């Protein structure tokens, strides 16, 4: 009886096993091509950005006459101040938002009170409603409070984030109840339990919630457009939109601004990606 012939050498992995990795690399390259083209366009004079698409070649992605003129011109105007405004608003939103979200999550995970499930359901419902649906009536309320063209008006809506509260609450539920009871017996106050037990143990969840708050605030467009109408209070996305004139568009400067507004959150996300993934995984423990 003859044995069937095998096309693969014993001990050598089958080529089919490498197919998922090959497919992943190809998909990654396809997603990266538009980004590389935007980066290349930001290093070209504005009149040459679209000309690079006439004949597709390696020069479309690698400019031979690269220049930083677009970036220099960009930051000589109001765009640099808009980027600093975005960084300031996002940083303050993350700091205050984490304090509010962690406090709310602590109360919902530790204390037993009537209506706790209803409160948590309302919080879940809050981040399922698109913010743009309530932005216009909320902006009218903020104008009545004289919060238009103020940093407080730009920051306040981003502080209370239902998704951040949900992530932190799920993480706090995994903290052993015995540890909390032992701390209470030793005389530790609830504030001490919060600051000395829950917060130190929940660093990945805090980073994940902070990234959620940062991303929400950084990419926000409609709210800064309604509230920050003065040039001194404009944020990065609004400044990017104003670069497109009615008659002439300098695509070199537009692409340079897009690169700047993309690189800043990209660096933050790549630096903290591991903690964010861990916080998402741990949110399903309970």
Outline the fold blueprint:
Elements: H1 19-42, H2 69-76, H3 79-110, H4 116-126, H5 132-144, H6 151-159, H7 162-172, H8 177-185, H9 190-201, H10 203-218, H11 222-227, H12 236-242, H13 251-271, H14 273-282
Structure characterization notes:
This protein has 286 residues and is mainly alpha-helical. Helices cover 66% and strands 0% of the residues. The protein contains 14 helices and no strands. The protein is globular, with a radius of gyration of 25 Å.
Short description:
With 286 residues, the protein is an all-alpha fold. 66% of the residues lie in helices and 0% in strands.
Instruction: Return Rg in Å.
Output: 25 Å
Biggest β-sheet, characterized? none
Shape annotation: globular
Q: How would you state the average pLDDT, rounded?
A: 83
Structural class: mainly alpha
Tally of alpha and pi helices? 14
* Topology order in helix (H) and strand (E) letters: HHHHHHHHHHHHHH
Can you tell me the residue ranges where pLDDT is under 50 for at least 5 consecutive residues?
A: none
Distance between the termini: 58 Å
Strands, count: 0
Q: Strand share of the residues?
A: under 5%
**Secondary structure: helix percent:** 55-70%
Give the tags.
single chain, 286 residues, mainly alpha, 14 helices, 66% helix
């Amino acid at each position: 009886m003859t044995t069937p012939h095998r096309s693969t050498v014993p001990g050598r992995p089958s080529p089919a096993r490498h197919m998922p990795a090959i497919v992943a690399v190809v998909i990654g390259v396809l997603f990266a091509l538009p980004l590389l083209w935007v980066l290349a366009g930001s290093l070209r004079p504005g009149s040459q950005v679209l000309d690079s698409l006439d004949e597709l070649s390696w020069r479309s992605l690698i400019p031979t006459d690269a220049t930083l003129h677009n970036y220099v011109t960009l930051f000589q105007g109001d765009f640099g101040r808009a980027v600093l405004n975005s960084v300031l608003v996002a940083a303050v939103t993350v700091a205050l938002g984490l304090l509010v979200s962690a406090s709310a999550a602590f109360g919902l995970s530790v204390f037993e009170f009537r209506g706790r499930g209803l409160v948590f359901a309302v919080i879940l419902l809050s981040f399922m409603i698109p913010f743009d649906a309530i932005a216009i009536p909320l902006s009218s309320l903020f104008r009545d409070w004289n919060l238009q063209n103020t940093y407080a008006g730009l920051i306040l809506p981003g502080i209370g984030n239902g998704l951040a509260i949900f992530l932190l609450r799920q993480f706090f539920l995994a903290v052993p109840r015995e540890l909390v009871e032992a701390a209470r017996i030793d005389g530790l106050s609830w504030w001490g339990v919060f600051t000395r037990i829950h917060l130190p143990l929940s660093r990945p969840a805090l980073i994940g919630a902070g990234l959620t708050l940062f991303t929400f605030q950084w990419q926000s467009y409609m709210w800064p457009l309604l509230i920050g109408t003065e040039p001194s209070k404009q944020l990065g996305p609004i400044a990017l939109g104003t670069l497109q004139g009615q008659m002439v568009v300098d695509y070199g400067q537009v692409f340079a601004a897009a690169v700047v507004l993309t690189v800043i959150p990209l660096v933050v996300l790549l630096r903290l990606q591991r903690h964010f993934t861990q916080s998402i995984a741990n949110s399903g423990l309970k």
